[in-house]
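::Encoded backbone::
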Amino acid sequence: MNSINVLNNMNLVEVLRQYELRVATIETYPSFYKLKTDRGTKILKKWNDIDTLKEVFRFKESLAKAGFRKIDRLIRTKEGKPFVLYEGHGYALTDWIDGKKPSIFDEEDLKILGTTLGNFNLATAKININHQIAPWSEHFFRGLKHLQYVERYLDNKSDKNDLDEIILKDIVKLNEQVDRSIQMARKIEKTSFRIGIEPKLCHGNLYSESFKIDEYKEGWIVDLGLPIIDIPVYDIAKLVIRIYKESGFKDEIIYQFLNHYQSVKPLQKEEKYWILTYIAYPHNIWKFLYVYYVAKIPHPTENLSQYKKLMDEQINLGKLYQLLFTYFDL
């Protein structure tokens, strides 16, 4: 972080003069400017892709209209524009969301985390997008083809290393696991689409640190970027896995988080199956094998220990699947 004099940066001068504020100090960070102004602390971000910036603006406004306003909305210029275009770049101004990152080990923080995501998903459910996506079963099937390629490649490899040998021992079970994921996805796809569960806008990459809790104990989602379009429970399925890992694989924290989420947005039976289907697929193992053996991107020297860690993680996710199957009463 560095402090700068705004008068020494004419680009910033031209951009900021289009807003109704007076700037006292500016701090520079790798991806944004932090401004102390007469209207509070603001964040100014520079965007090279204007189309992406427009989509982010539309997403945030759609959420606000749907009732979820705990986000850093874009502040309009003097002329009422949502951002500034200057010399081929976009500049967007937002409020600085002051607050703490939630601790999943704090019961009150976990409650705020769950209810905030529940309210976010209530809002995304109201946003009509009329957009089709490739079924999860198709994505999983492509993943199976990648694993089968890895198996053939290693079978034919003459100079196998320790990692190759271990993967060859695991690959049959991994293929079987992915095949089960495909069958699960196909089954729930038929039911869900028949009863009208449609793709919706999703955050796409939530972590517990994607949230902030302000001084009034209100939960916010910060750094909201370009949304993805997927099954409505995509965000909670991904976040459940990350919270489970962050907690050191503690069951009770997952129960509490889901209880708080469902106090705001109860999960339908089909949504519960979607969550289980997502958990059942070995995403990180597939990614590791794809990068290392299919795309052939060099891994660091600790690739063997990394693989073993991912397999241990997958064992714990199998336990998560079992405990959620019981918790969901399916």
